[in-house]
Design brief:
The complex is a heterotrimer of chains A (about 500), B (about 300) and C (about 625). Chain A has about 500 residues and is mostly helical. Helices cover about 75% and strands about 0% of the residues of chain A. Chain B has about 300 residues and is an all-alpha fold. Chain B has one domain. The N and C termini of chain B lie far apart (about 45 Å). Among the domains of chain C are: about 240 residues, no CATH class; about 50 residues. Chain C has 23 helices and 5 strands. In chain C, a hairpin with a 5-residue loop joins strand 3 and strand 4. The mean pLDDT of chain C is about 85. Classes of the chains: A mainly alpha (about 500), B mainly alpha (about 300), C mainly alpha (about 625). At the B-C interface, strand 1, helix 3, helix 4, helix 5 and helix 9 of B face helix 14, helix 15, helix 16, strand 4 and helix 19 of C. Strand 1 of chain B pairs parallel with strand 5 of chain C.
Chain lengths: ~500, ~300, ~625
């Protein structure tokens, strides 16, 4: 056995509780331990993924209660891929923020890393769990650490942003609980595979209502328009790496949940079109809102929202190609958007308001950071030979194969908008004169390494996409094969 | 080799004929103008006297290589045009290069000289020269439109782009193209006004204000070459018109009658016209002449 | 590992190496730069022939590269002009900032263009198309002047075109299951009518943008004039030809196969004609050489588009020959402008005058290219123009030929403006210090000028490859043997024999040159441009006799009504309108938590209300 899925939840949770204790021994441990834990988890995840690729999904039963009664964790290729991606990003976020604020005290650092660990735990849990109530718990864990991280700077604005997040988060919890209640009252089970098996027995109206409640609740976390009011503020007010963590980890987990509900659990025929519709609306509104932003992080936030809309659209095609494209998009989005958040944070590091115009002429002072930001911008708008191109191509191919001509036109038009605002920023970085007296901040060594690693990955995927397409194809196949999922979970009778 | 020498000899003969005829026309122009204005005017051979005087003068200054070579460029155009246009229908003494170029080629070789001379005029640094050149080039854009409309009409009607082809059409049918394609003829003649740059289209030279425009800085031998070039070009253009619209000519006498008749049209029109400004002139060419040109094309399409 | 792989690797590696070697030594950087353009060019012409294919499998898609006669012709333009421009760039970029950046994008552009030409499948075509777009975009914004408008405009137009092409590609993939161009072409007759129309339209949108076709041309004047001149010479000379290349393929292999193709070709031909006319008018108006040449490029591309859209063999030959010629003369003219910019620091006609005696070699290059541009015999431009007119006349495009004729006559105005503005006119003290540009810049210009001269008399040198390229596309060669000699002819049998004409022109010119010089030139003395007849007065030294402001005023007044409307303004209007719309959408995010909560409730209510429709 190469390791069990339960470790992905147990170890970071344990680490999160141990961090304050270890901090009493040596303050630096607060910063070091999360890294060690995440590294270990990454190795574990990769090993497990390799195993799963060869031998099929691993289903872990917690506390000896077999499904459908007990809670189980499912490490299929699909969820395993996302877990690996999320942990990898978590590791990068950790490495990046290891010395992000050199001047911060012990106490904020402790809170920061503690909440980061919780955030990762929760998100990984959402992806791994096979039980809807368990998922609710993990979503709560994720959200609460998210609230904390948003308010990290303790300013007026960050408190306000955090409050909005709390507000919408509690609405999300309510709807989620309602949905779970409906399901449980109807089917008497909370296990995903079991529900999927019995879903046809459910009252059709209630089925639809519960699906809508699920999507609403998860949509708030997944930043679907018009449920994403919290997101721009939270991204803008939270520390830069947290933005990357939101975009790369939390949102991914929530999208995973929506997809799991749509693909595996529910059998609603209109759900796919529903995903396309809300995805398109999200994409269009977010990207057009992004072009009018004056603050860099806010712009990145809207762009991130838009990308997630596109991911939903790609999932909504309902074909294996579509899922492949969506996964590719998620992967690229995680990598590229993180790079943009990472490098963007340094471009506006010492500025108070983080205005876009404050990046003017930064290339002279921060050449590498600027180059990486430009690389990220070029990659995210889908220019070849960078990573974003292949995902865009696969989205387009999937759309064409599903005969979604109108969707293609809209997506491409929105891409032009996206292109414009990214290029505007890159132009500012390179060709404008520095106006304000803001002191540029050189990135720390580990931040630089993280950004360069991301840049190299972007180039690697761009020049040789085969490094990931194999896994992605298997992952999309595993999501599409609903019966296999049910079979694997429910066959665990002792 | 012998043929080449004969060609060259023929070219020289053609050139001399064109020179004499063109110069005479220039003299007659001055005479007629004077008589109409109730003056006595110079004798008809005055242009020969002028040419002799200019050619025997010695130039003291030049303004650089382009200025020096400008007249030579101009001469290339005149002589090439003369050589491309068939002077007489059946005569071996006027060999020409007609079988080596067609109307479109002719149109373009006709622009070679003005551009070269414009460069020469430009190098002198005299603003009047440059002003004259810009006016001349602008005017050219004006009159080329009806001219090309007329030519295109002929080409598409008779499915040939060569001058000899069009002459053959006339010989074959027995009617001149000015009768079978009247609109094209009208447009072409109106364009001819612009080519001759007589009043009302004489703003290029604008003799009183611009000191003769492009040629302001030339004198002596330079002016002599330009003057003879102008004379040769006049003859070549008129011959071209005769070939295209008046059925060509079998001998020199008929040719001279036909060309002179044609020459009288712009000449007499100039006597009763005041001067147009450049933009007015351009618009004039894009008005009625172009309308007739379009009618010609319409006729060519329908028939 | 085929030679094509190696060529791409050299380009790619050379670009990176050139970029970073600048940190070590400037000379090393220049050497790397030259090597990474010239070596692949040599390898290509020496070792890559038709029929050899190279493949690369990426992401489950097989990219295939190979060369046929048609793409070989364009490779000649790209690599030939690219090599010349590269040599020129060494001189031009000396002492400038961001050299590595410039070189990097220069090499990438050449690579991308070669990639486009060598692509046999649509995906690699698209990939290289996009690389070409962004690398040229990066050079366009090199100067940093007004880039948020100029650069973004260029990129947006290119992106719209490229995305249209991407749509076409994936739809074709959906229909045929393959990304190969050949399968697209083979399947084309079996498509539904709407697809038969839309697929070419989407492709032509992409190609039309790059070929600066009306009404997609608005980016071109700004982009061409903003890029460094060493790059603009390939930008306008070679990069725009990629649009032409694509257009020819679409027109010949797809549109010609359907009966509706006639209207397609008519529309494109007219668009080309209008482009030519409007580009010319605007070129005349410009006071800056860069802008003038940029508009002139737009106009010249209009001729080329018209030629290839006519679709007859002569029209194709005319269009492609003009494409080669345009690469030569426009490349040279941009180089001339760059040389003058380098030596004087400005390219404004109102500032620079009278350089002819200071930069004689540059002047000769400029003069020859202007003669070629104007289409005056005996230079190569005439051959292309002649074939274009003949093809228009013989294929019953009576009015279009007038439009083309108008624009090419009006082109004399800006031709003269260019030559006069820079080289002729008053010699001013301000420019007394100006020296001839360094040899490394002058030699490429002169080489290209000589080529124009040769092609004017022996067009067969280029017409033969063009012809075999067209045969590769499926044209029947009806003019065969004649490309051996120097005769051009039309389908009615009318012809121009170029060789004797050249000899006559030279003969007459030399005769009168000797006549003028005989006992003349030696004894006459050169006088300065102040020593002129000015109503009998002698102009004082400080008297300003320079004539350049309002140079073509009378003509501009005559055509003023045609220039009152500018398509650019409409685009700007659309862009502004969109920005306000976006601003309105942005206001959905009020920043108020309560509103956001209401949104959630409204969302749920709406979805619940429509649940029967949705699910």
């Amino acid at each position: 056995m190469v390791g069990t899925p339960v470790l992905f939840i147990a170890i970071p949770l344990l680490a999160a509780f141990l961090i304050p204790l270890l901090g009493m021994i040596w303050k630096e441990l607060v910063r070091i331990v999360p890294g060690l834990v995440l590294t270990y988890l990454l190795i574990l995840a990769v090993n497990l993924l390799v195993h799963v690729l060869a031998h099929g999904p691993v289903v872990e039963v917690i506390a000896g209660w077999v499904p459908p009664i007990g809670i189980n964790l499912v490490f299929s290729v699909f969820s395993g891929f996302l877990v690996t991606l999320m942990i990898f990003l978590g590791l990068l976020v950790w490495a990046y923020s290891y010395r992000f604020k050199r001047n911060v005290d012990y106490e904020p650092a402790l809170k920061y890393f503690l909440m980061l660990m919780m955030l990762i735990t929760g998100s990984v849990g959402i992806v791994l769990t096979g039980d809807i109530f368990n998922m609710f718990v993990f979503i709560e864990i994720t959200s609460i650490s998210g609230y904390g991280l948003t308010a990290f700077y303790k300013g007026r604005d960050s408190a306000e942003a955090s409050f909005k997040y709390v507000l919408l988060g509690s609405v999300a919890s309510t709807f989620l609980l309602l949905a779970i209640m409906i399901i449980y009252s109807q089917l008497g089970t909370l296990n995903m595979a079991d529900i999927a098996n019995k879903i046809h027995l459910m009252n059709p109206t209630l089925k639809i209502v519960s699906y809508i409640f699920f999507v609403t609740a998860l949509g708030i976390e997944a930043e679907i328009f018009p449920l994403n009011g919290w997101a721009p503020d939270a991204y803008a007010e939270a520390p830069g790496p947290v933005g990357a963590a939101f975009a790369g980890i939390v949102v991914k987990a929530s999208v995973y949940a929506i997809i799991r509900y749509t693909f595996t659990i529910f059998d609603l025929s209109g759900a796919f079109n529903f995903l396309i519709i809300i995805g398109m609306i999200t994409l269009i509104v977010a990207e057009t809102a992004a072009i009018r932003q004056e603050k860099l992080k806010r712009m990145l936030a809207y762009s991130s929202i838009g990308q997630m809309g596109l991911v939903l659209v790609a999932f909504g095609f309902g074909t294996e190609e579509g899922v492949f494209a969506a996964l590719f998009l998620m992967l690229n989005h995680a990598i590229i958007k993180s790079l943009l958040f990472f490098s963007g944070s340094y471009l506006v590091y010492n500025s108070k308001c983080k205005y876009i115009k404050e990046v003017n002429g930064m290339s002279k002072f921060l050449p590498v950071t600027s180059l990486l930001f430009a690389l990220g911008a070029f990659a995210i708008v889908g220019l070849p030979p960078f990573a974003g191109f292949w995902s865009k191509l696969s989205v387009m191919t999937a759309a064409a194969d599903s005969n979604m001509i109108l969707i293609m036109v809209l997506v491409l038009m929105v891409s032009v908008v996206e292109l414009v605002y990214y290029l505007r920023v890159v132009n500012r970085i390179y060709f404008f004169k520095k106006e304000t007296a803001i002191e540029p901040k050189k990135p720390t060594f580990n931040a630089l390494v993280v950004m360069i690693v991301l840049g190299v990955i972007i180039l690697a995927i761009g020049f040789y996409p085969d490094v990931v397409t194999g896994v992605l194809h298997k992952a999309s196949a595993s999501l599409m094969d609903k019966s296999q999922y049910i079979h694997h979970v429910l066959s665990l009778r002792q | 080799m012998e043929k080449v020498l004969l060609d060259i000899l023929g070219a020289i003969v053609t050139f001399l004929v064109a020179f004499v005829v063109g110069m005479t026309y220039g003299g007659l122009n001055r005479k007629i103008t004077a008589r109409v204005q109730n003056r006595k005017g110079p004798p008809w051979y005055q242009n020969f006297i002028d040419a002799y005087k200019l050619s025997s003068k010695k130039s003291a200054i030049h303004h650089g290589v382009m200025h020096h070579l400008g007249p030579a460029f101009l001469m290339v155009t005149s002589v090439m045009t003369l050589l491309i246009v068939p002077v007489l229908s059946h005569n071996n003494w006027f060999p020409n290069l007609n079988f080596q170029g067609d109307l479109i080629f002719l149109l373009y070789i006709m622009t070679f000289g003005p551009l070269g001379m414009a460069l020469g005029a430009g190098q002198t640094g005299n603003p009047n020269s440059a002003i004259g050149v810009t006016r001349g080039l602008s005017m050219m854009v004006g009159f080329e439109i009806p001219w090309v409309l007329a030519l295109v009409a002929l080409m598409i009607q008779y499915h040939t782009t060569s001058i000899t082809g069009l002459m053959a059409v006339q010989a074959h049918s027995g009617t001149w193209l000015m009768f079978s394609s009247p609109f094209a003829f009208i447009a072409a003649v109106m364009a001819l006004f612009g080519m001759f740059r007589y009043s009302p289209f004489d703003i290029v030279g604008a003799p009183t204000e611009l000191a003769s425009g492009p040629i302001a800085e030339t004198g002596g031998k330079y002016l002599f070459v330009m003057m003879s070039s102008g004379s040769v070009f006049t003859f070549a253009k008129l011959t071209l018109y005769v070939d295209l619209f008046l059925g060509g000519a079998d001998n020199l006498f008929i040719l001279i009658i036909k060309t002179f008749a044609l020459y009288l049209i712009p000449l007499l029109y100039s006597l009763v016209s005041p001067r147009y400004r450049t933009e007015q002139a351009i618009r004039w060419f894009w008005g009625w002449p172009s309308f007739f040109g379009l009618l010609a094309i319409l006729q060519a399409i329908i028939f | 590992m085929e030679m094509i792989h190696i060529i791409f690797l050299i380009f790619l590696g050379g670009a990176v190496l050139t970029y970073f070697s600048g940190k070590i030594s400037k000379v090393l950087q220049d050497i790397f730069f030259l090597a990474s353009v010239l070596v692949p060019a040599y390898l290509f012409f020496a070792y890559v022939g038709a029929g050899r294919e190279a493949t690369l499998s990426l992401g489950g898609i097989t990219l295939i590269w190979g060369v046929n006669h048609f793409s070989w012709l364009f490779s000649l333009i790209v690599l030939g002009l690219g090599s010349m421009a590269a040599i020129y760039a060494i001189g031009y970029m000396k002492g400038k900032k961001r050299k590595g950046y410039f070189y990097f994008n220069f090499i990438l552009s050449i690579m991308a263009m070669m990639g486009i030409l060598l692509s046999i499948d649509l995906i690699s075509f698209f990939i290289f198309w996009e690389i070409m777009t962004w690398s040229s975009y990066l050079v366009t914004i090199y100067n940093g002047h007004d880039i948020q408008r100029i650069g973004i405009k260029y990129f947006v137009f290119s992106a719209i075109g490229a995305y249209a092409m991407l749509m076409a590609i994936v739809i074709v993939h959906h229909l045929t299951g393959s990304f190969l161009m050949s399968s697209m072409i083979n399947f084309y007759p079996n498509m539904s009518l709407s697809m038969q129309i839309w697929i070419p339209v989407m492709f032509l949108l992409a190609f039309g943008v790059k070929a600066a076709m009306m009404p997609l041309h608005v980016w071109a004047p700004d982009a061409y004039s903003n890029a460094p001149m060493a790059y603009t010479s390939i930008f306008s000379g070679a990069l725009s030809k990629m649009g032409i290349y694509g257009m020819v393929i679409v027109l010949v292999t797809m549109i010609n196969q359907i009966p509706q193709g006639f209207w397609f070709r008519e529309v494109i031909a007219w668009l080309g004609g209008i482009t030519a006319a409007i580009g010319t008018l605007w070129a005349i108006k410009q006071d800056d050489a860069k802008k003038l040449l940029a508009y002139s490029s737009v106009a010249q591309l209009g001729y080329i588009i018209t030629g290839i859209a006519i679709g007859t063999e002569l029209g194709m030959l005319a269009g492609l020959f003009l494409a080669v010629m345009h690469a030569l003369f426009k490349g040279t003219l941009f180089m001339v402008t760059g040389a003058i910019e380098k030596q004087t620091g400005t390219t404004n006609f109102n500032e620079v005058t009278g350089l002819i005696r200071k930069m004689p070699w540059t002047f000769i290059a400029a003069l020859l290219s202007i003669i070629a541009l104007a289409g005056i015999p005996p230079l190569g431009g005439f051959v292309g123009k002649w074939m274009l007119y003949e093809s228009l006349i013989t294929s019953n495009h009576y009015l279009l030929v007038i439009v083309i004729f108008f624009s090419s006559t009006a082109a004399f105005l800006y031709c003269y403006k260019f030559l006069f503005g820079f080289f002729l006119g008053q010699e001013e003290k301000e420019w007394a210090h100006v020296k001839e540009a360094p040899a490394v810049m002058v030699v490429p210009m002169l080489i290209m000028a000589v080529m124009m001269f040769v092609l004017g008399t022996f067009p067969g040198i280029i017409l033969k490859p063009i012809n075999s390229g067209l045969m590769d596309l499926g044209f029947v060669d009806s003019f065969k043997h004649l490309w051996e000699s120097s005769v051009i002819l039309n389908v009615w049998g009318n012809h121009v024999v170029l060789q004797p004409i050249l000899y006559w022109i030279i003969g007459i010119f030399v005769f009168f040159m000797i006549f003028l010089t005989w006992k003349g030139f030696k004894t006459t003395r050169y006088v300065s441009t102040k020593d002129i007849s000015s109503s009998g007065e002698v102009p004082a030294d400080d008297e300003n006799l320079t004539f350049s402001v309002g140079f073509m005023q009378p003509f501009m007044r005559a055509v003023a009504p045609a220039m009152r409307r500018q398509i650019d303004k409409y685009y700007n209007g659309i862009a502004d309108g969109l920005e306000s719309l976006f601003e309105f959408i942005r206001r959905i995010y009020t920043g108020n938590g309560q509103t956001y909560t209401i949104y959630v409730i409204v969302f749920v209510v709406i979805v619940l209300l429509f649940k029967n429709i949705l699910f």
